[in-house]
Amino acid sequence: MKMNSILITIVFVFCQLLSLAQQRPNIVLIVSDDHAYQAISAYGSKLMQTPNIDRIANEGVLFKKAYVTNSICGPSRATIITGKYSHKNGFKDNEHSSFDGSQNTFIKELTKSGYQTAWIGKWHLETEPQGFTYWQVLPGQGSYYNPDFLMMDGSKKRIDGYASNVVEDVSEEWLNKRDTSKPFCLVIGHKATHRTWIPDTIDLGMFDNITFPLPQNFYDNYAGRKAAAVQDMTIAKTMIMGYDLKMFENEEAKNKEGSIKRMNAEQRKRYDAYYEPIIADFKSRNLTGNALTEWKYQRYMRDYLSTAASLDRNIGRTLDYLDTHQLTNNSIVIYISDQGFYLGEHGWFDKRFMYEESFRTPMVMRYPGVIKSGTVNNNLLMNLDIAPTLLAAASIQVPGDMQGQSFLPLLTNKKAKGRKAMYYHYYENGEHSVSPHFGISTGRYKLIRFYKRVESWELYDLENDASEMKNLYGNKKYKKLTEKLKIELFQLINLYDDKEAEKIFTEKIKE
Ligand code: SGN
Ligand code: CA
Fold first, then answer.
1. Which of 415, 449, 471 is the last residue before a domain boundary?
2. What is this structure's pTM?
3. Residue 122: closest CA among 311, 332, 313
4. Which ligand has the minimum distance to the alpha carbon of residue 80?
5. Residue 385 beta carbon below 6 angstroms from any ligand 1 atom
């Protein structure tokens, strides 16, 4: 009798634990690299179709105003996992930072509370991942073809194939092998759509019949914007004919290129079969001036969007996996890019600026039973909020030093209010010559302070100037607004405890 009741208690406790494990949602966080919302059909893009990203939005929510705290790869990822600004998590730029893995992350909190956690694919935080059940990451930027992976035992492993497919394969292998009695959190880090935009062989040529319209500010002269005038990220001057656009001078130059050298014979054959005739045609045209720049733009778009096609297809594979393994109903799926990207706006590629195309990022989320399908959200959200949101979803207390806030209430409670303004701080002062800057955006107005490379303020009214061409700073009509925004900016600097910005702000306020 006594034995029986002990047994019943054990079975009861076990069932409770099992149901708790089943109740806590699984999490799939897909992070791409440099994927512009301008190239996603859910955001109204006419450039291409992205049916799988659109599917997440249709079955969940499309965030129209998701932004990053610092528009560059490593810093964005560090912010995503720590829920903290760069000055707090220590990863300020790609050039000098290396992630202090001993600090807390939402992943560590999940692992501690019984989740199986993994990061697979692009990581780019220099030090080895810590606090994960499993990781298998690309070294640095990683390679499009036959990528190498850093393994947990310290070894390196090369896997044949195209990065987007391989990262998805490895992710599914991990899912197959995981302990199914526990909830999981899988981060899939895709390489696409990063420079130098080398498509999968099956996607070569898919946009060849399309001529893409030039963005209306393609020939921006940067008048009134000092930092925009000194950057080095234009399609006209910075984008390289060989390295970026595969128009190599000769066979020798091509063979020297690391990304091409690693292709196997079959991949190389298809690559050459596609690009060789284009090189021949390009040479015969002898283009110069604007005609050359516009030709570069078309090539850039064709390659960039082709890498995006593979990215989207592999996101579809993730969703299919969840379907076929009956995981869809109990899994959160978030798709986000590490930042936005320029597709010719201001004549640019790359990111970094607090201007919309790079400050804002695509973000869609599916959470069956919690988020109504077809939701469109217009709150000001940041990548900073992902860690607290996912912890809240997993019923784990959000550590007090995380600086973001869960956006779940904004999706479930009509009365919930989001932030009124966002704070941004970009630090790198090297490749692409973008001046460090910090600023505030209220959604409508944006005030930016550039420092170090150039010293200047900029002010925009996004309602009347969505593409940020007209710097209103110093305009008498906006004096009051400027003063108000400066006070609010200072409040945010203090709220987030950004000492470096505080010092610069206090010294330059009089200008
Ligand atoms: C590389 C690229 C840059 C890019 C940075 C940061 N140059 O250095 O164009 O801005 O990465 O990108 S490349 O010649 O190596 O392609 S990030 O996505 O890692 O932030
Ligand atoms: Ca990036």
1. 415
2. 0.95
3. 311
4. 2
5. no
Close Cβ partners of 469 (under 8 Å, ≥ 6 residues apart): 217, 220
Q: Which residues surround ligand 2, an ion (CB under 5 A)?
A: 33-34, 73, 338
Domain range spanning residue 445? 424-506
Same domain, 267 and 326: yes
CA 111 to chain centre: 23
**What CATH number has the domain bearing residue 57?**
3.40.720.10
Peptide bond into 196 cis (omega under 30): yes
Clarify whether residues 109 and 236 are in a common domain.
Answer: yes
Q: Which residues pair with 505 in a beta bridge?
A: none
From the CB of 31, is ligand 1 less than 6 Å away?
A: no
Q: Which ligand 1 atom is nearest residue 194's CA?
A: 18
Q: Model confidence over 79-93: pLDDT tens digits? A: 999 999 999 999 999
Q: What is the DSSP letter of 435?
A: P
Question: Are 383 and 491 within one domain?
Answer: no
Beta strands 445-450 and 148-150, pairing class: unpaired
Is the CB of residue 352 below 6 angstroms from any atom belonging to ligand 1? Answer: no
Report residue 424 as tokens. 């941004």
Which amino acid residue places its CA nearest to atom 16 of ligand 1? 195
User: Alpha-carbon distance 486 to 469, whole Å?
Assistant: 21
Band of residue 385 on the pLDDT scale cut at 50, 70, 90: very high
Q: Is 432 in the pocket of ligand 1 (CB under 6 A)?
A: yes
Q: Examine the domain organization and report whether 321 and 283 are in the same domain.
A: yes
In the block, residue with structure tokens 């440099």: 34
Q: How far apart are CA 469 and CA 233, in angstroms?
A: 17
- Residues 121 and 176 placed together within one structural domain of the fold: yes
Same domain, 351 and 258: yes
pLDDT tens profile 211-240: 999 999 999 999 999 999 999 999 999 999
- pLDDT greater than 60 at residue 417: yes
Distance 331 CA to ligand 1 centre (A): 32
Specify the residue with its C-alpha closest to ligand 1, atom 19. 73
Question: Is residue 78 over pLDDT 60?
Answer: yes
pLDDT reading at 17 higher than 50:
no
Ligand 1 contacts CB of residue 194 (under 6 A): yes
